[in-house]
Structure formats: C-alpha cells, structure tokens
C-alpha cells in the first residue's frame, strides 16, 4: 500500500484547500510513493514519538500538528529537532500532517470536540475561507440541560480528562446553555462567538490581554489547553481502520502511546 493511496482517501474528508494559508500541512518528510505496512496516529510528532515509531517498526506517521511548523535553519544534529528529522529519514518513515484542514472538515476535529462536550443543534463558528458555505472552523451548539459556568467548567475537566484548566469569567454562577468550541488556539475568534450569542467559549492558549478583552465583552471562556485535540488519535484510528477494511489496504494501524501534553498542573 502506498502513502499516496491513504492520503488521497483522507483528503476527500479534509481537502488541503481548507487549510489556513500559514499552515504547512500535507507531506512533511518522506515520499507519497513510499510503501506502508504499519501506520501510527499521533497528535504531535516529537522526539519521543519518533523513538516509539522506530521501536514499533512504523513506516508512516499521520499527525494532526505539522512536524515542520518552522523551517530548519541548519541540520546541526545537536539540535533535538534536527536529530528527530534525521531519525525519521534514517528509518525511512514518512510523515504527513492534517491540521487546520481537519479542523474545518465536516465530521472532523471540531465536530468530535462538540460531540465530546455533548452539544446538540450544532452549526459552524468561523466560515472557511475556501468554501464558507459548506465548511467552518469551530462549532456552536446547545447543551441538553442548562448549567452554571462554574459547574460546566468542572464538567469539562472530567470530559477532557485533565488535571486543570483556566476559567475566564466574571459570572461563574451564570446559567448557560449555548456553547462554542474551537480546538487548539482559537482565542482570536471570540468576536465570532459573540456574534453567535454563545454563553461560553471553549478554546485553548488564551493570552492575558485577550482574556481581559473577553471578560470586558461579557463572555465566559474555558481554556482546557491545546492538548484536548488528542481526541483525534482514537477518532482518526477508527476512521483509517474503517477504510483499511473497506478498501483492503492490509496495513496495521496503531495509536501512539506517548502523552505529548507539555504542561503539568501542580
């Protein structure tokens, strides 16, 4: 089975054109013509993930976050990032990333997150630049039952299986029902959340000054971090396994066992 065959099938779900202009998605390292026997799904491609792939004899890594977000300025192998690139190439591993195209895809990242928090009557949040009529980044929907901001924040801790999150709100006792969610770093889109009249916005990596602006606008925000996008690991594995059986790819599909969350709550 060729990498190209797998990628072509995936891009029917999440066309590359949906990706934001700054986003270096697609083939990262290797060749689309490479053979695939064992494929591993991961959120991030970090040195420990590559070591895992080597030990497990993986020849194709499918990631959400691009491994080459920033171009290499040199190939000095004392740099851990460069050494990781060298290890990938040395062991003939192909790496592909689907990032903001998966975020905007229907039945993709943000639909998975909306389902995870229990949203109903879901619609798009930020229309996609390529096809605003059919694709959007982020989702808006309603909870089955109304709940206070504080209780919903506590519930999100359990839903996302995290030890801590940041609540940005001057009204933690407010009873809410309409929720917007955008995986990753979505704080810049809070004006669109206000236009959708959502009571709470779930997104990661909110900065100090933006948090002040959100509070001033009367919006409550739950920041559970960026790593909640790890939901893509089981969801993508399930999707690829379905195609594996449907199209007789005869490849082995595994999920990374490495937790790439960089933050520890103490």
From TrEMBL:
GO CC, alphabetical: cytoplasm
Protein name: GTP cyclohydrolase 1 type 2 homolog
Pfam annotation, one family: DUF34_NIF3
Subunit structure as annotated in this protein's UniProt entry: Homohexamer.
Similarity annotation: Belongs to the GTP cyclohydrolase I type 2/NIF3 family.
Protein residues bound to a divalent metal cation 1: 65, 103, 226, 229
Cross-referenced Gene3D superfamilies: NIF3 (NGG1p interacting factor 3)-like
Alphabetized UniProt keyword annotations: Metal-binding
Residues noted as binding a divalent metal cation 2 in the record, renumbered to the chain: 64
InterPro entries noted in UniProt: DUF34/NIF3, DUF34/NIF3_sf
Species this protein is from: Philodulcilactobacillus myokoensis
One MF annotation (Gene Ontology) recorded for this entry: metal ion binding
Top-level taxon in the UniProt lineage: Bacteria
